[in-house]
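Crash report, auto-generated. Payload:
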Amino acid sequence: MTRSSFAERNLRILFPLPAIIFIAALMVFPVLYTLYLSFSNWNLTSGMPAEFVGVGSYVRVLAEPRFLHALGRTFTFTVFAVAIEAFLGVTIAIILNRAFFGKSVAKLLLLLPLVATPVAVGIVFNLFYDPTIGLLNFALDALGFPQGRWVSSEKTVLMSLILVDVWQWTPMITLIVLAGLAGLSEEPTEAARVDGASEWQILRYVTIPLVMPVILTAMILRLIDALKTFDIIFAMTGGGPGYASETLNIMGFKYSFEYFRMGQASVILVVLFLVVLLCSLGIMKLRAASEL
Amino acid sequence: MKNKFVSSMLFYLLVAVIALVVLFPFLWMLSSSFKTQVDITAWPPKLFFVPTLQNYRKVFEEQDFLKYFMNSTIVGAVSVGLSLVLGLPAAYSISRYAQNKLAVFILLARLMPGISFLMPWYIIFSRLGLMDSYVALILSHMLISLPIVVWIMSTYFSTIPRELEESAMVDGATRQYAFLRIILPLCGPGIITAMTLSFIFSWNNFMFSQVLSMEKTKTLPIAVYNFISYAEVDWGGVMAAAVAIMAPAILLTMVFQRYVVKGLTMGAVKG
Amino acid sequence: MRNKLSKTLLALSSLCISAGAAAQSGEIRVLLANHPYGDLLKQSIPQFEKSTGIKVNVESLQESQLTQKLTTEFATKSSTVDVFMTRPLQEGKMFAKNGWYAPLTGYDFADYPKNIMNAASFGGKPYIVPLVTEWQVLYYRKDLLQQAGLKVPANFDELEAAAKKLNSESVAGFASRGKGAAAVTQLSSYVYNYGGQYLDKGTAVFNSKAALDATRFYGRLLGSYGPKGVTSMSWENIMPLFQAGKVAMWTDASVFYGQIVDPSKTQIPVENFAIANFPAGPKTNAPFIVSSWGVAVASQSKKPDMAIKFLDWASSKEMAIKGMMGNITMARSSVWDEPVVRSKMNPGLIATRAFAAKNGTPVDRPYMSAVGEARDLIGELIIESINTKGTSANVEKMAKEKVDRVNELLKDSGEFGK
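Recovered output after restart:
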C-alpha cells in the first residue's frame, strides 16, 4: 500500500474547494446588499438616500394584502406546474426508455421547448390564447367546444400560464430522468423478470424506486425555478389582468424597476429566497429518505 | 407475433402524439417566421400562404447576428466548461463523502432571485473594470450552471457503486486517478445532460446578459427584443429571430455532446 | 529595404495620428430606445462619427429594459453612460430628483412648445430635449361607418351611438386599452374632456365627479362594445385585431397610424382606415399631446463636452426633418411648417396634430415621481369599471381609496401640494 499523498487525504476539501470559493465570491456581496436594502427604506422616487429602518420595510410589505396574494399565487403556480411536469416528465421518460428507431431524434426534439426563447414563447402563446383571433379558441370552436378567456381573465390566467410552463419545462424532467434510467444497472429488472413479475410490477416496484432519487433531483431543480418563474409571466401578462397572475418574483421586479421602491423590493426578494430555501429543504429531506 | 406488431404501432403512435404536442408551438413559430405580418395575424388563421424570407433577411442583415452568435457561443461554452471543471469534482466529493450541507450551499446560488444580483454585481464588475469584457457574463452564467452540474452529477455519482474506484485504489491508483479515469467515463449520460441543460440556460439567459453586457458583448436573446419596438411588434421578425436562436443552440449541443463522449471514452480504462 | 522602412514609418505615424485623434475625439456611450427615431439615429451615427471624429458606442433597448438598465447603472453610481433617450413623463421626475440628468442651460429651446418644455424642466431648469411627440386620436373604419350610415363621431355621445351600432358578433364596435396601467394614458383624454384631471397642484383629484363620469363612460364603452378580454389588452393586442378587421373604432396615440395604413401589415385594404380628431366630451375637447421621448446627458458622464455634441446633433433640426420625412412625429414646432415635410407626411397626422397642439393637454398621466405605482392604482379602477360596464356601485369608494394612496405616494416623495 503506497503512502497516500496530501492531496488524496484531503480530497474531500480540495475537490469542492474551487466551487465553494467561486460561489462564495459571487454571492457574498449580493446577499449582504439585498439584506441591507431590505432593512432600509430606499425609495428612488423620494430622491433621498437610504436610511436604516430595521424591520420597517418588512412590516409595510408583509401587511399588504397584495403581497399575501402574490405569495399564495406563487405556491399555487408552483405546486400545479411541478406536479404536472413531474408526472408527465417521468411518464414520457419511461415510455422513451427503450431503444427504438429515432430515439436520438426524439431526444433532440425534446430539447426544443427548452431552447425556445421565453419572450418568443410568450408572444406565440399570447397569440394562441387571444380570445378573438387566437388559434386555440378557433380550434375549440371548430371542434364544438366552448371557447375560453385564457390569459385575459382573472379566473383562468394562472392555469393558462401553468400550461405554458408545463409545455416548456416537462422535457427538462424527462431528460434528467432518462439519463438516470440509462444509468441503472440491468440486474434488478432482469432478476424481477426471471421471478415472473409483470412489466407493470417491475415498473412500480423496481424501476421507479431505483430512479426516485433522480426524479426528486429533477423535481428540486424544477421546483426552485418554478417558484421564481419570471420570463413567461412577464412576457405574457406582466402580472395581470390587474394583479391576477402576479407572483413574488414579478412583484419584486415591479417594485424594483417600476415603483423604484428598492427597500421594499428587497424584502419581497428576501421572502422569496426563504420560501425557495424552505421548499427545497423539504424536498431534499424526501430525497434523503428515498435513498435509504 | 401480431401482439408485438400492435404494441409496437401503439408505441410509435404514442411517441408521435407526444412529439406533436411538444412540437406544435414550435412548428407554429417556424411557419410564422416565413409569413408576412399580415398572414401571421390573419383571421381565420392561415394554413397555406406564400412564404417569404424577409424576416430572416432582417435578422441576419439588419441585426448584428454574427456578433451576438459569437458572444453567446463564447460565453456559453466557457461558462459551461468552467462549471464542469469546478462542478464535477465537487459533485463527486458530495456523493462519496455525503457532504449534504455542501450540496445545499452550492444550491443556494440558484435559490436567490436573479434580480437581487443585478445591482450588486453591477457595482463590483464596473469597479473592477470588467464590464466591457466577457468575464462578467461568464461568471454570472456560471453561477447558474454550477448548481445544475453539481446537483445532477452528485445524484448520478451516487448510482455508481463505490467498489469500482475502491478496487482500483487497492491496485495502487489514487482516488483522483480513479475519479478521472474510471468513474467519469461511466458518467456519459449524466454529464451530457448536465452540460446540455447548462448550455441552454446560458444561451437563453436574458436578464444577466442585458445588464452586464455592453455593445461588444451582447448575446443572442437581445436579437429577439430588437423586434419589439415602442410602437410596433414585428411578429415575423420575432419568430425568425427566435428560430434563428434555437437552431444553433441545438446544433452546438449536438457538437458538444459528441465532443464530451469522445473525451470521456478516450480517458476510459480498458477492461 | 527602403520600402519596408517607409511602410513602417507610415504605420507608426498613422498610429500616432490616430492615437492623437482618439485622445482628442474619444468615445461616448449612448443608450437609445427601440423606437423609429432611435433607429434613425442609429443608422445615422456613422455620419456623426465622420464629421466630429467622436466614436459612438451605441446600444438600443426596449423601453422597460432601458429604464431598468439606466436605473441599475445610475442608482449604483457606476454608470458609464453619456447620452440616453428618456421618457419625460414616466421617469423624468424621478431621474431629475436623483440628479441623474445634466442641466442643459446652454441649449436653445425656442423651437419647442412651452407646455411641452414644462414637462422637460424641473425646478425651472431644462434637463431634457424633447424629441418626439404623440397625441390622442380616433382611428376608424371608413367603410364600416359608411355602411352603417354614420358620420365620424365628433363627441362622446356620437361615439357611443356609433360603437353600439357597429358592434356585432364578429366585429367589436370600439376598442381602447383596458390593461390597467397601460390604459391610464388613454383614459386621460376622456377625463380631460369631462373636465377632470388626475392631479391638480400636487393633489390627486381623479375621484372628482368629472373624472369618475369619464371613468364610468370608458368602462361602459369598453365593457359593452369592446373586444373580448379587453382588460388585459394594450396597444400591441388591439393593433392586430384592428388590422384583422375585428374592431370598428379605436382610440389611442397617433404613433400607430403608420402601421395601420401600411398595406404589408393589414388585411383590410388601407383606404378603409382613417384617422380623426379625438371626440369632444361634455365639457371640452383637450386630448393629450405629449413628448413621449426626449434625449438627455447623464450627470455622471465623464465626457460632457462630447455628450453635448451628440445631443445637439440628435436633436438638431436637420435630424428632425429626416424623422418627419419618415412619418415620425417630432417635437420641434418649426419642422411642421416645412413645405417638403407637409408634402410628404400623412395629412391625417398633420391635421390631428394641429388640432391637438392648439387645444390639447401636455400630460397623459399623473405627473409625479412614483408614476409607475400610481398608474397601477388607477388601472385597478379602470378595470373595475370595464368589468362592470361602468355601473359598479364600488367606483366612488374605490376611487377615494386610490386617491388616498396616490396622495400618500406624493407625500412620500415630497411632491404633495406642489
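Post-recovery validation: The mean pLDDT of chain B is 86.
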